[in-house]
Amino acid sequence: MHLKLENLAALPSGVLKPNYSRRDLSQGIVHIGLGNFHRAHQAWYLHRLMQDNQALDWAVLGAGVRCEDANRRIKMLKQDCLTTLIELAPSGKAVEVVGSMIDYIPVLNNNAALITKMAQKSIRIVSLTVTEGGYFQTGLGMFDKDHADIQYDTAHPNTPKTAFGAMIAALQIRKDTQAGPFTCLSCDNLQSNGQVLSQTILGLARLSSPDLAEWIEQNVTFPNSMVDCIVPATGPAELELVQSFGIDDSLPVTHENFRQWVIEDKFCAGRPELEKVGVTFTDNVHNFEAMKLRLLNAGHQLIAAPAELLSIRTISDAMYHPLIAQLFRKIETEEIVPHVSAVPGMTPLSYVNLIAERFANPEIRDTTRRVAFDGSARHPGFVHPVLRDAIAQNMPLDGLALGEALWARMCAGWREDGTMIESNDPSWENLVMQARIAKDSPAEWRRQYQLYGDLGREIQFGKRFDKWLHLIWSQGTEKAIQTYLDCLLYTSPSPRDATLSRMPSSA
């Protein structure tokens, strides 16, 4: 059955459907970067409110600024902006159609349609998932005012290329028409993502209109938030899966049976009552954020690279590999947990156990390629802050240095079985060049200032990184991991040890 509003009633009985009429919904949010994560996470929370006849004036308008966004818009409009969500729990699957998105704004080179829509007073929140590397930050976390796209937007403030330029242009109209501000809400995996978004918006606005920048600083809010849900990319297997439920959806989304959203309650133009459906509002997002970014996101990066090198296709299969499972556990408990504070209801060690179970969920076919993608943004964002803390406190960092060395080896562009690793980073060409140089001169990798900053010159990190990279190249990934595991007495079992009964065929 083709996914359309007119066909909802005819969908199979086991499929949960919207019980609200789309005619009763009105726009309240523009979301830029309408990928799988948004539809499985933020859109779902709004959908749950709407199922209770609440937040009907907070419907989502999808938006984007890239060519692929235009292609996605065509597909979404063909199915009335409905999305099939398939929850993949170890105990079974559940299917739900989400209807909180009501339209998709035309994707134009000058962003005219997007600007016009965001300028409307009914839009009170503009949210974003534009990836960790999409905020025009330097490797040191500063606003990159010299980037070509930023320079273009500075010279053409009314016809900008970037999402941020479009937001600024819309805020200019709202200021001029006295429509008031909207809240700018980042939903990306960035430490202090609200502050990062504020830095980008204000930095760009100051280049073209200092008066507007001052108005934004005084009136617009940028809440920090933490988002959490494992959402794999959609491929042939996912398309086949949704068909097995009797639904013809060209853009279905699979996700794990876990969600978390923590937000600062700083909304200048109102907000939906998301706390009613499990969202946590707090003034202390940082501790939640640090726990998730340092343990889950850094953990993802630390296992994705060795899994790629060993031709292990998915994260769940990686967690069945005895060496990678132990690597994950040892680095997490011995080298990251000491730099993470507890949050209400969760200790760092409990969270490690939780994410180990989530990573190992065999129903989630989350590829190592997806997780390893954009390492030039993810390693500085997730791993390097822990490294810096470890150096400052003279704490163990051997495993963290090994993780960086494994990533450097992965960036050479081929696996240990000789197969090639396809381009996996916006800076892939340069990373490959540097990684191949580093084979014989490991320090050359650390000298990439845009990635490491002063961290690359730290003696504690440098000695360990160089040692591990030499070992990986000379004796292989598994030997390097085993050497690390043997360095110190290690007795903490993997959460998978009790059920470890198979090796993945890809191992």
Care to describe what's here?
This protein has 507 residues and is of the alpha/beta class. It has two domains: 5-281, 3-Layer(aba) Sandwich (Rossmann fold), CATH 3.40.50.720; 285-499, Orthogonal Bundle (N-(1-d-carboxylethyl)-l-norvaline Dehydrogenase, domain 2), CATH 1.10.1040. 46% of the residues lie in helices and 10% in strands. The protein contains 21 helices and eleven strands. The two termini are 38 Å apart.
Secondary structure layout:
Blueprint: E1 27-32, H1 36-40, H2 42-51, E2 59-63, H3 67-78, E3 83-89, E4 92-98, E5 101-104, H4 112-118, E6 125-128, H5 148-155, H6 163-177, E7 183-186, H7 193-208, H8 210-219, E8 225-228, H9 236-244, E9 253-255, E10 260-263, E11 280-281, H10 285-309, H11 315-320, H12 322-336, H13 348-359, H14 368-372, H15 375-392, H16 398-410, H17 428-438, H18 443-446, H19 449-452, H20 459-475, H21 477-487
Parallel strand pairs: 1-2, 1-6, 2-5, 3-9, 6-7, 10-11
Antiparallel strand pairs: 3-4, 8-10
